[in-house]
Amino acid sequence: MPSPATKITGAPVVITGAASGIGRSLARRLARLGSPVAIADVDEAGLKETAASLGDRAQVLTRVLDVADAADQKRFAGEVREWLPAPLAAVFNNAGVGLGSSVADAVPEDDQWLWDINFHGVVNGTRAFLPILLEADSGAIVNTSSVFGLMGIPYQSAYCASKFAVRGFTDSLRHELRGTGVRAITVHPGGIKTNIARNSRVRSDPLGLGRSSEEVTAAFEALLRTSPEKAAEVIHRGVERGKARILIGPDAYAIDALARIAPARYWDLVAPLVERQMGLRAKNAAINATRKDARLRNWARYDALDYAIGCPAASAGRARHHRQKRQMGHSVRLRPSSPCRLRQSTH
Fold this sequence. Notes:
Number of helices: 13
Number of strands: 7
Strand content: 5-15%
CATH architecture of the largest domain: 3-Layer(aba) Sandwich
CATH class of the largest domain: Alpha Beta
Distance between the termini: 73 Å
CATH superfamily of the largest domain: NAD(P)-binding Rossmann-like Domain
Strand order of the largest sheet: 3-2-1-4-5-6-7
Shape: globular
């Protein structure tokens, strides 16, 4: 059953990660509808671009902010409290980064960097702004998780851990807020066309295919289908309709269903689709073809040796060799002058 709706259209909101992607699109959408917006990001240049895109009539507070800094989050909350032209309607803890690595090859410092932003940034923002909402006994904390907070994905262990943590943290908060006018909402975006892939840390190809970090990023971006503008629309409507959990994109609904139906085997169903989208099947096929060519070159050397010595005793082995080549779809060229090949040509 949906929670009571929270009207945010025209009311003040706070948005972190507002320099690009979903955060920027949320700021643009809500400012256009009359909401005063307090926007923050560690990317000062991107934040200025977002602010400039909101128009001259928009009420905007901008703040360069590292969400991993709990003390600075509290200072930002104090600044917002003084700036507020009306009761705060929503806080969107949206800032996030990405990381690609296998568990075996993970760099602990990279994992900590990601957790400090993706999880602790959400915790810091929630703790900084929750007192303001509780004083007014209204509003919503809206925390961005991911579909990777619904399903564990290979080579995304740190990212999944952070997004599962956001989900668990927000679910716990939701139940703590029962009986108050404040709501806690989790957002699970699917593949959104944002800069998160290009702002991710990828030190090496996690699949061991020898791809550059740019190629790994491009393969991941091939999975992104939903625009950030559409994501902002879905989030806005979901908050105002009283949803406790907001899924964005058809891929998010599919992943949510698979995680429920086959909780231990969902990757068996998802992997072929992901590989096809990312072009990994073609890459793997090329590698396998190279290996086949190497085997054929080895066989060719054995052919040349047999021909040189004219070895009739090798005929049975050569026959098996040619049958294998035929089964693999390769043509077999026989030399009539070789006794071995004269026998094999009768098979």
